[in-house]
Amino acid sequence: MNLSARRSAVCALASLLVLGLCVPVTLSQRGSKNVPVKNAKRANDAERHSSDSAKVFSQIMDTPDKGIPKNLLDKAEAIGVFPGITKAGFIVGGRGGQGVISRRIKGGWSAPAFFNVGGADFGAQIGVEKIDAVLLFMNDDAVAGLLKDKLELGGELSATAGPVGRTASASTDVLLRAGILSYSRTKGLFAGAVLKGASISPDNDLNEAVYGLDAKDLLTGGEKMTMAQVPTVVRVFPITLARYSNR
User: What is the pTM of this model?
Assistant: First the structure.
């Protein structure tokens, strides 16, 4: 091989190496030791939101006679959990908290989409610094509200305090009127809560980092993604939901 040919081969190899370094690493490749720091941080964020939300939901549902009625869970089209919402976040107008929302799909639940919540008033919560919130989206109209840039509760959609207890049930009238049933847990006490003035918006920076998709894609095309395709670090949330409701 002459000198010119060798130089061409070296340049071609160098170009391939550079392109290889520029290929984005998804969370499904998280097992690799070469995951960039910025992706590792996003992986940690996604894992924390998913695992915290799953833990809160399990704790609520496993509390004897204090969970969300099974018949309501089975009617919900989507479920959102927002753990550790801070009161301070509402006061200063910042993001009150982060959480995840999964939509019901055939045989289970979709990959969790990441959302932010802020501006909510859960009623008188004197001395309470943190609140865990659970939202049941009871129909397609409620889910459609999540596909917008921001869902303002109290406008087109309102959130109604949901009933609590294994044998409790909401009246047919309440179910027909309620697009969203809301609950809160403060200092270990879980109850239905009237959620006023909350805004729910997708955290598409995180959604894109995890899936390469935004929240709308995840909530409308969830059936196209099998559980095997869902990044391992976030599977815990849909798997947890399926333990309690898998129609």
Answer: 0.77
